Amino acid sequence: MQSFPALSFLTVAVAGRFDCPALPHIPAPQDISQLHPSHVSLVMAVGDSMTAAFSARGDLNEARDISYAIGKGEEDQLTLPWLLEQYSARVEGQSTKAVFPANVAHLPDGDYHPKTDGMNFAESSGAAHRGSVDQQWGYMLEKFGEYQDFDSRWKVLTYFMYANDIMGICDGPASEHGDYQSWEAKTEEFLVNVTSILNNTYVNLLPMLDLSHIHRIQQSKVGCKFIHEKLLQEGGCIDRGTDEQLAQLDENIHFVNARVHKFAADWQAKLQAQGRTDIAVVAQGLLEGIGAQLDWTFLSKLDCFHPSALAHEDLAVGLWNSMLCTKDRTGRCGQPFTPGMSVTCPDDNSVFYTGADVAPAALPSTVAV
User: Fold this and answer.
1) What is the pLDDT of residue 8?
2) C-alpha distances in Å from residue 350, one per residue of 26, 115, 346
3) Tell me, which fold does domain 32-334 have in CATH?
4) Is the model's pLDDT at 12 over the cut of 70?
5) pLDDT exceeding 70 applies to what percent of the chain?
6) What is the rounded distance in angstroms from the CA atom of residue 157 to the CA atom of residue 170?
7) Domains of the chain: which residue ranges?
8) What is the pTM of this model?
């Protein structure tokens, strides 16, 4: 059990975007189906530059302290750990500082900052086919012993890794490409490792947005268009792809998103067969079909490619809302991902979703301006 004291109730901040009431103490869960935000005391993340928050503040740093899934965050820059802290007596594992990418000449290898990254193992340029999943799992194993009562504490692990495995597949189906096949194999291996070693863990698997819309946004701004037509080549066919290539890219993203859901469904069945009630693997479809709703404010002012600080806050809120969405996941509980979306306020009966895998319904295709 956790060694730090339970609180009779927490004082919850009321400011800006977050405006939720305090809750009484919630009894400890008997299994993961009863997991409330107040029970979580450790956070972990595996991913690429999106989770590393590269250039979120418009500079060359990784703004890891405001990463949607694993940054410390603050009152006016919400993150998943910050939201958890409003209900939990203690949350550890967050990144606490913006840093320049480590080993920058050889990314993604070695892009971890042990003094300030906690259990944020995300690496800029990270990809399964580049060995990132293996390396980040290795970093994770080394950190477990640094946290008191690690095994018995309730943990949230967010896995968002495949943009760099899929962005270059624009001239044919992903299923036939080696980078996709590496991603599929390494994701399965990662889930085997996680479920074999960890206890009391809620695993978020995140599907991807429709990346053709990043190209659309880039083309809508003169400076961004110039950068990605003349200077940068960081997004596969997103930078300079034809309409046909961009359509193929989105088709491949939908294919891989469906595979993310299959991972969640398959692992739910495996864990149930093993009698595991302390761990769940859940696909959080907040970004599925998203893209048309976005405009230039979603992108970094530096490279018009990576998510901005504003986008990271929206992603944090979207992930939080999805985790708490239990009654209408097909309809995204009436809260499709949109910039500035409101924060779901949990009550003392709220739990994180652990039911059958559900892919969300398609969204209207209205394009942001």
Assistant:
1) 34
2) 10, 34, 5
3) Rossmann fold (3.40.50)
4) no
5) 93
6) 30
7) 32-334
8) 0.93
